[in-house]
Amino acid sequence: MESIRNIYKVGNGPSSSHTMGPAIAAKKFLERNINASFFVVELYGSLALTGKGHLTDITILNIFGEERCTIKFQYDMSYNYHSNGMKFIAYDKNNNEIDSWLVFSVGGGMLKELNEPRNAFKNEVYPHKTLTDIINYIEFNKITIIDYIKLFDKDIFDYLNMIFDTMEETIQRGLNNLGILPGRLKINRKANEFYQKYLKTKDFNTLVYSLTLATCEENANGGIVVTSPTCGSSGVIPGVLFSEYYHNKVSKEDLLECLAVAGLICNIVKTNASISGAEVGCQGEVGVACSAASGMLAYLKAHDIRYVEYASEIALEHHLGMTCDPIDGMVQIPCIERNAMSSLFSYNACNYAMLTNGQHKVSFDSVVQVMKETGYDLQAKYKETSTGGLAIKLK
Ligand code: SF4
């Protein structure tokens, strides 16, 4: 598996697969065709169908320059490899094609080329791919999960420190910013309102909602967020983490360890299944974020990898089948509220696991496989194409 660094990326919302991934690809293509006169970018599958709502076109045009780039939305074309395909074509001043690149934004800002193996990466640092193998290694060597992460992911805690600070800055901006989010839906930001209610009542759930909304509303507004593991699901892990920081006074040192554990859970899903709503629905985005948050809470309570595994398994199992049907292709409804619901659900899943002796029948790795299979069985209209479900109910 790759470093946890590749789970937590800093960038502009609203979508890691529809804005961050295309932006990274566009910059790479521009670098290798710096003398080109003109560019055409074809968007396929989900990138075509929800590209406008997710601001994919604006993101790409900002990189190449509007005056020398045309975006073509190929609504009827999609590759089986992954729904988020895009083709960059460069032309010289005589209108001759000089370069082209077909590439896929496969979730969390990650890029892959056609038929490139999905579970193999160029810079793998972890020797294991499943949680079962990691648990066996940890128990055989009598080390902790944090020892394990430090052993293979060098200097990761310096990076996580920066990620923690960036998450907090996003939350603070989200708590302070008022007004209406962009787009036809005219959704009022709620993070500040909820936070004021928390200050009066000190009700913990209200704080969890508020801090989760703060990140999601910044994301919907195109602000800077940390993918955790994606932009669409970027509210859950920070919402839970900073509720523990502000309300329960957990130390930053302990929370950095939580962030590492959550990153490892996301990494396992990214490696063995998918964190892309366009590929497996929202179970792969908010479902995975909830699973990782629940695992990190279990770590905080028990420091025991077996409870981390169980809490993560419960949370993911009970998001199985969750569809992705954003209205107008925007990361607003159902995304923002869904993050808030799943932040609280991560506490439920953790608390349930902690009430048991840790024994359970279904492993986390099995649920990851089921999530992948369920995602592949979902019809395309429920996978970030905005052609079914909630997306067509609000006229
Ligand atoms: S419904 Fe879920 S997967 Fe789809 S865009 Fe919203 S957050 Fe992402």
Explain how this protein is built:
- This protein folds into 2 domains: 4-113, 60s Ribosomal Protein L30, Chain: A, CATH 3.30.1330; 131-392, no CATH class.
- Helix content is 51%, strand content 10%.
- It has helices at 16-32, 45-49, 56-64, 131-141, 145-152, 156-176, 191-201, 204-220, 236-246, 252-272, 277-280, 286-302, 305-317, 335-355, 364-377, and strands at 10-12, 38-44, 69-74, 85-91, 97-107, 110-113, 224-226.
- The strands form 2 sheets. It has a 5-stranded mixed β-sheet with strand order 3-2-4-5-6.
- Strand 5 (97-107) and strand 6 (110-113) form a beta hairpin.
- The termini are far apart.
- The model has no long low-confidence stretch (mean pLDDT 96).
- Bound molecules: iron/sulfur cluster (SF4).
Short description:
The chain is α+β, with helices and mostly antiparallel strands and 395 residues long.
Notable features of this structure?
single chain; 395 residues; alpha+beta; 60s Ribosomal Protein L30, Chain: A; two-stranded antiparallel sheet; globular; binds iron/sulfur cluster
SSE arrangement:
Elements: E1 10-12, H1 16-32, E2 38-44, H2 45-49, H3 56-64, E3 69-74, E4 85-91, E5 97-107, E6 110-113, H4 131-141, H5 145-152, H6 156-176, H7 191-201, H8 204-220, E7 224-226, H9 236-246, H10 252-272, H11 277-280, H12 286-302, H13 305-317, H14 335-355, H15 364-377
Parallel strand pairs: 2-3
Antiparallel strand pairs: 1-7, 2-4, 4-5, 5-6
Helix pairs in contact: 1-3, 6-8, 6-10, 7-8, 8-9, 8-14, 9-10, 9-12, 9-14, 10-12, 12-13, 12-14, 13-14, 13-15
Bound small molecules, deduplicated:
iron/sulfur cluster
Order of helices and strands: EHEHHEEEEHHHHHEHHHHHHH
- What global shape is seen? globular
**Cα Rg:** 20 Å
The separation of the N and C termini measures 43 Å
Number of strands: 7
Q: How many helices in DSSP terms?
A: 15
Please estimate the helix content.
Answer: 40-55%
- What structural category arises from helix and sheet content? alpha+beta
| Mean pLDDT over all positions | 96
Number of domains: 2
Instruction: Report low-confidence residues grouped into runs of 5 or more.
Output: none
Strand order of the largest sheet: 3-2-4-5-6
Strand content: 5-15%
Main beta-sheet annotation: 5 strands, mixed
